[in-house]
Queue: 2 jobs
Job 1
Amino acid sequence: MASIDIELTSATATELAGLIAARDVAAVEVVAAHVRRIADVNGAINAVVALDAERALARAREADDALAGGERWGPLHGVPFTVKDNLSAAGLPMAIGAPERAGIVPETDATAVARLRAAGAILLGKTNCPPYGGGIETDNPVYGRTSNPYDLARTPGGSSGGEAAIIAAGGSPCGLGTDSGASVRLPAHFCGLASIKPTAGRVPLTGVLDDLGQLGALSDPRTQVGALARSVADVALLLRLTGGPDGRDGGVVPMPLGEPGDVVLRGLRAAVVTDNPLATPTPETVAAVEDAAAALRAAGVVAEAAETPAGGHEITLEIWRSYGDDMDAAALYGLLRRWDAYRGDWAAFDRRYDLVLSPVFPGPARPHGGMHVPGEIEPTSYTTPHSLTGRPAATVRCGTSPEGLPIAVQVAAAPWRDDVALAAALRLEQELGGWRAPEA
């Protein structure tokens, strides 16, 4: 049983879907293996905060019966998944780490959750996040702190830290988080996963909440629902399944999603960024970016050092300030003007480059409570520009720190070219190894 469980809980979502479709393994076996894995690891990492084991197993039995009768629900038929606690899931608690929300149970699914269920996937449960889903460490007064499966003394990051931790630990093959500045990409980097923050307006935010309620394109244009998994192919599949208008989120655009497999890398131009004035990366982080650039050059990409548009950190600071009571309408209007100009600078940059390679963070996962170090101005300054501009940004593991911790590289592309970012990430995964299981 133990060896079978390890095989199933180390497999990708795409591999599991293939095994179930071929009836080489039953969906109930797959779900049961992941439930057991959660029981084994969750006491140490505290990633899953609402487990729906009974309903998941019942749904898995229904999936097996359907398949026996010749009915396949979709490309993820029988495959389990998890979601960050700020996405609604019918019948499951949605505290979002806030004591005042303890006991609140939604009656409906967020659109992205419903779409994965419609594709045959089976929800295992909800995962931990900072209060109301925002922050770079996953800790809250309701559920406590989540730890990194590669080193329990370190954080998985935030705000989708619980989601990243349980996927890396084998308790879930894939899942959904949200990202406003780093919140999918940072935990994916700290936990060695593949991920994508999609183009703004691709995936509906319906059913995604913060302290003020339902999020939307005007109230929070930086936040997107993103996918996390142990393979780039799984991330691409989840994006394909969750994207597109839902008739409720008015900010979603009916823009077709290209297939990463159809992208020709040869001849594309990549800007390579290994440093910035706000956060100096470790030598191993620089090496990972340079290795990624070399791997893309071998595929025919013209990869060269380049400076990206400046000023994003200052705008991000002002956006954070605008969420309080310290900014009047005139100042907010001026901020929006500067934000528009910054987006224009990036649009001009995108005429010269198809891709941007950079660190996700200055180094690997940091100890709990140690996310900010002396002399460092803003460690998320590599990720926030792509949130300000709505550009798609993927991550993939490309290196390892001296401590044995994952180091990912961020691969960003022009708006609506999620396929280009994922195609480059897929190539890096093939050449540089991608996800590796924690030794602990």
Note: Residues 263-432 form a domain with the Amidase signature (AS) enzymes fold (CATH 3.90.1300.10).
Job 2
Amino acid sequence: MTNYSNGRRAEWAARDELIKQGYTVTRSAGSKGCIDLVAWNYDGTRLVQVKKGSGRATPKEREALAAFDIPPHSTVEIWHRESGQWEVEKVRSRE
């Protein structure tokens, strides 16, 4: 299985989790950008980068995510799945 396939599978799992939490979600497939998923509901917007397995966000990726200009009631997050559990790190928040 390719890295792209593995990454896509992780993004779909994160998407499914966000949908369960009541968000509408879109995936930026093939964008090669910092944001993999955009999720929103009446409480706000979540911009999510998904990491899988042993992958972690690099300092350069974290810097790019922290620099996003986001509207009120929004967060920029890194989601990492390990042992079936999601670890969610808020990189930037405007609540």
Note: The radius of gyration is 13 Å.
